[in-house]
Backbone:
């Protein structure tokens, strides 16, 4: 591409500036988020090519107008069989780019406003699964700590259930991220979260003790990854999912309730939030603990906790005498003044 192309507000120039400057340099978004946005645009270009015969090299800002985006959402649903949550993630990437274009290239404001007017799809509310203490202990018991893989699995479970870190954060942990391991009461883990934001999460004494023994037994160097695959490679996200699935199946023999839940690494995150909430930890602290950018994200756990309390209340017998004998006052002003 010619240098002059970058100096103009062409679509390729705007898109590349959005990724390189806005997302990576300015907002310092994680590699996972960048990849997600990248894939969203690749799928959008595939849609334009298949539906309208528009090659990626010929895409113009006008191809992000409302009608194109609305058709794209239909394409995701009918052709790719995506659920609303996936379609909304793709739409979020497009909306973010359009908001960037609104500032960088105001000459496209009409197209931007129409594109941003495309609403997000309504998502079905899914019941939030979480792991009970008994279920967690059943999962720990099936980890054979006489083997290196079993020890790694147990440590993985302990850290997930203790800290609630994301699967991507778990696989990126290095031995240097473990702080004050020699003092169990002060031990904690340094986590690099979304947007490359660092946070410190405390760990239990039992987790710290097992972690210390694990690192010595595995003879891990300070600069090494904490979790390594059986062949010496870094443990991947899919590797974590595979191990958790296997552990759940084995533990279900003692705790069948595990099979009724969709257990993943993120379920541990839900469980930590619910445990903290049950311990009367305030939402702002939980938000910091989990690395949420907004406390609104954390609020969903309070809603889930309230729903559980409603279900519990429904099992309690209601009083028989619930008659209501209040008589309304005919003087409405008198009523309002009494409030």
Residues:
């Amino acid at each position: 591409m010619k240098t002059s192309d970058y100096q103009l507000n062409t679509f390729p120039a705007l898109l590349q500036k959005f990724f390189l400057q806005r997302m990576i340099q300015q907002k310092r978004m994680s590699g996972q988020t960048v990849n997600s946005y990248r894939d969203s645009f690749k799928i959008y270009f595939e849609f334009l090519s298949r539906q309208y015969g528009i090659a990626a090299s010929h895409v113009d800002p006008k191809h992000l107008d409302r009608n194109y985006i609305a058709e794209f959402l239909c394409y995701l649903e009918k052709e790719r069989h995506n659920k609303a949550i996936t379609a909304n993630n793709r739409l979020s990437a497009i909306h973010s780019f359009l908001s960037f274009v609104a500032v960088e290239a105001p000459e496209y404001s009409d197209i931007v406003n129409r594109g941003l007017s495309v609403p997000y799809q309504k998502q079905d509310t899914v019941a939030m699964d979480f792991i009970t203490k008994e279920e967690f202990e059943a999962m720990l018991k099936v980890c054979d700590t006489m083997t290196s893989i079993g020890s790694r699995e147990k440590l993985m479970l302990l850290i997930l259930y203790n800290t609630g870190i994301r699967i991507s954060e778990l696989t990126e942990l290095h031995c240097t991220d473990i702080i004050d391991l020699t003092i169990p009461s002060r031990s904690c883990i340094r986590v690099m979260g979304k947007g490359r934001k660092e946070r410190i999460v405390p760990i239990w004494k039992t987790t710290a003790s097992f972690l210390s023994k694990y690192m010595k037994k595995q003879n891990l160097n300070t600069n090494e990854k904490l979790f390594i695959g059986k062949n010496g490679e870094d443990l991947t996200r899919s590797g974590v999912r595979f191990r958790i699935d296997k552990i759940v199946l084995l533990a279900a023999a003692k705790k069948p309730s595990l099979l009724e839940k969709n257990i993943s690494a993120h379920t541990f995150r839900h469980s930590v939030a619910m445990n903290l909430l049950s311990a009367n930890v305030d939402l702002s602290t939980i938000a910091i603990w989990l690395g949420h950018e907004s406390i609104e994200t954390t609020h969903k756990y309070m809603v889930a906790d309230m729903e559980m309390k409603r279900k519990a209340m429904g099992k309690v017998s209601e009083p028989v005498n619930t008659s209501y004998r209040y008589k309304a006052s005919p003087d409405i002003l008198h009523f309002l003044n009494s409030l």
